[in-house]
Amino acid sequence: MSSPMNLPTDSSISQPVTTVSNDCAQLLADNQWLREQLITLRDCALETEALFKRHQDWEIELLTISTLDQLLECLTTAMCARFTLDEVRLLLLDGDHGIRGLLTRLNKTPDEFISVMFYAAVTELPAPLTQLTTPIVGLMDTDTHRVLFNTAPDLASTAVLPLWREQRLLGFLCFGSHDPMRYSPDLGTHFLQRLAAICAVCLENITNRTRLEIGGLTDPLTGLHNRRALKQRLHDELARSQRLGQPLSCCFVDLDFFKQINDSYGHATGDMVLMELAECLQFSLRACDFAVRFGGDELVVLLPATANNDACLLAERVRHSIVNHTFVLSDGLELSITVSIGVGTIMPSAYPKEKLTDERGDDLLRCADAALYEAKRAGRNRVACQSL
Ligand SMILES: Nc1nc2c(ncn2[C@@H]2O[C@H](COP(=O)(O)OP(=O)(O)OP(=O)(O)O)[C@@H](O)[C@H]2O)c(=O)[nH]1
């Protein structure tokens, strides 16, 4: 900032009146100029303060997010709105499909997040991205721009933030604007660098947390839900069934003579049969059904809003699909197996206004287990049904 001010010298003090009035005018002009500079500085400071506050609020919001899907939403759609951007893209390096797998377990499809792109490795990306350690502003080269903003080629300025966490590159957060000055090449990147660091921490924390939560509710052999997950879900489904006045059904699916498979082919082969059975079962179910490995060779399926006769039809379908499935073992040996299925159903009229306890869930499981016992006793490879 250069000043137009002429500072008075000793000789100018004794000058004639016209000179003094000229000096006065000069002083007024200088004063005016200084005032304008002050106002500009103040506006600049206020703008920086507002920007800082906006970033700080945003960071607090990010740090309080507790689910992976919320975080992805927040880093893309919400970020776009909050910072009045024209485009936001989040590119995630997800070589082992870990993040996509977690989303699927949360009943979300990765395609739902249209601004999130998944790549196996950074080597699949254009060279300028592979070497990025700090945010870069301005426009990227055409190839890189196309990869990052494929459907938005008309952006006038962009910022690309690499998300590093302890020397591991998690991905890139990319902002685009139609305003060429928004991310001009001479823009300081301190704010962006800080934002990138916070986003990387949040991403890593939430991914790890989700992995732990899901791990604690999943059967490691079959990938189905475990008993702990069933307990939680049973409570929720009973409450929903009571609220909406809908029946809730449950199937116990048990392999017939599984011990013989273990004894004849070994435990490892038995494990493979269990894994394939779980896959086969899931294939026959609806998206709203909840499949669980209850223990050993016994699987349980919760069927929300399903009456007893419909649950029996579904159980027959499951039984058929397993009977018709050929289990191919590791040494090429082919095996056919059968299952017995017990179906139990609870009607909301059985517990109209009572406060729900875990006992109601236990009643439903006992009912389906009793039906399974009936199916086994009647000769196996069949479905038996009971209602509460
Ligand atoms: N391979 C393998 N076997 C298991 C696992 N958990 C339990 N088992 C075995 O599953 C078998 C279950 O046997 P049983 O309860 O007698 O039932 P079954 O032989 O299927 O006979 P029915 O149910 O009466 O038709 C036992 O041999 C258990 O050792 C597991 O994780 N892997």
Automatic annotation (TrEMBL):
Domain of life: Bacteria
Coiled-coil residue spans: none
Limits of the GGDEF domain: 246-388
InterPro entries, per the entry: Diguanylate_Cyclase, DUF484, GAF-like_dom_sf, GGDEF_dom, Nucleotide_cyclase, Rev_trsase/Diguanyl_cyclase
Annotated EC: 2.7.7.65
GO terms under cellular component: plasma membrane
EC class name: transferase
Cofactor (UniProt): Mg(2+)
Protein name, per record: diguanylate cyclase
Organism encoding this protein: Thiospirillum jenense
